Amino acid sequence: MTRSLYDLDAGQLAALVAEAGEPPYRARQLTHWLDTRRQPDPRAMTNLPRGLRARLSERFAGAGLTLDRHQVGDDGWTHKLLFRLPGGDAVEAVLMFYKRGGLRPPRSPRDPTVAGEEDWEGGPGGRATVCISTQAGCAMGCTFCATGQFGFTRHLSVGEVVEQVARVSTMLPALRPGPGAPDHLTNVVFMGMGEPFANQEATWGAAHRLHQRFGLSARAITISTVGLVPGIRRAAAEPLRVNLAVSIHAADDATRDRLVPVNRTWPIAELLDAVGGYVAATRRRVSFEYALMAGVNDDLEQARRLGRLLAPLRVPGSGGHAAHVNLIPYNPTPGTGYAPPSKAAVRRFRDAVAASGVPVSVRANRGVGIDAACGQLRTAAGRPGRTVLPMAEGQGTGTGARAADPAERGARR
Ligand code: SAH
Ligand code: SF4
């Protein structure tokens, strides 16, 4: 069964058109709808003959994603979307707008938190980043993560991953919070539900398709992994040089074992060995994601250890630091027992990492009021009595849940 029209490559689209007895230029029109207009619904492809449209929609009835819920947070700068998949499960995608030049930490020679050119928040043109899912659920079982607690349902296909980007791209102009926000999608991060390197075929298939067919540069694509070493080794050998983010979350094996069970298979030393190989092969910097949880991994000793672990990672040739630490204050997830750190603890931790010379930045929480942490919307949607509003596509702004406290509105997750 084809799950999405985006599962079909150029040859398969051409065959589909030929089967319907249509001339080859119809395949180019179909491709234009899918890739340039990013429209996966055959019924909306108005320059295709009525018969072909009907044939395609009949043939692919039940395929594709259906928008089920839409929540708006951060005054319209964050949109969380729940898409239902063929077969009934659901995945989340989050669209985050960043103002031109905004949301960057202040730059000063004495500010050790300056993120450098790979800081993905703001920038001169602003950004519109979509965070997409690669699996319904996740089998990795991280103890702090809503998706991990839900368990694994199934892998997404290449087309289902790509279609999330297409659907969000077409909705974007209507969701734009103001003229300070970009009018098109600029970045894609594989940081939604699921572990991308546990579904390599769909992850790399989608990354290539986004690059070749949607024209996204490799540097506009980031894949985040919990630390699956074979996946990191493959990334080192991939010709498409996307950004790599590694969710490290702890600097010693005992703590990481508790948070990230897969650490028992690939402990920190092996993980860093694979990342070292990736850096050597690609000369690219790597982001290390670190979700700070009060009393669990936010103490000074962890920060210093993290600095000691990551400081030796250097870009060959330039000798500059290859690691960049992204601190994410924990986004509270009911039932996990973990809590966000205090602001003072975040600052202390950041300063201790910075003292090791490793670049570090703090990602302020995004969408706290709309369950924007990984897996939270799907969890909430499954719970009766929640005020999560179903919403028609294109009616973007205004009515969803909002971050209750303006101080909580900031960047990302
Ligand atoms: N499976 C991949 C990508 C998806 S998770 C991975 O783990 O890297 C994306 C990021 O969100 C990971 O760094 C994950 O650890 C983090 N995350 C999940 N739940 C969170 C929460 N409640 N608060 C803060 N970060 C969270
Ligand atoms: Fe899976 Fe990532 Fe959540 Fe861990 S943090 S359970 S790997 S989605």
Query: If you average the pLDDT, what whole number results?
Result: 86
* Secondary structure: helix percent: 25-40%
> Strands of the largest sheet, in order across it?
1-2-3-4-7-8-9-10-11-12
Order of helices and strands: HHHEEEEEHEHEHEHEHHEHEHEH
Query: Which structural class best describes the helix and strand composition?
Result: alpha/beta
Present as ligands are: S-adenosyl-L-homocysteine, iron/sulfur cluster
- Give the oligomer, counting copies of the same chain as homo and different chains as hetero: single chain
- Poorly predicted ranges: 102-121, 379-413
Proportion of residues in extended strands: 15-25%
N-to-C span: 34 Å
- Outline: globular
> What is the number of beta strands?
12
Major sheet description: 10 strands, mixed
What is the number of helices?
12
Radius of gyration from the CA trace?
Answer: 21 Å
Structure write-up:
Strand 10, helix 10 (300-310) and strand 11 (323-329) form a beta-alpha-beta unit. The protein has a 10-stranded mixed beta sheet. The longest helix is centred in the middle third of the chain and has 18 residues, at 158-175. Helices cover 31% and strands 16% of the residues. It is an alpha/beta fold and 413 residues long. The protein has 12 helices and 12 strands. The structure holds S-adenosyl-L-homocysteine (SAH) and iron/sulfur cluster (SF4). S-adenosyl-L-homocysteine binds at residues 144-145, 191, 195, 224-226, 247, 289, 291, 328, 330-331, 333, 373-374, 413.
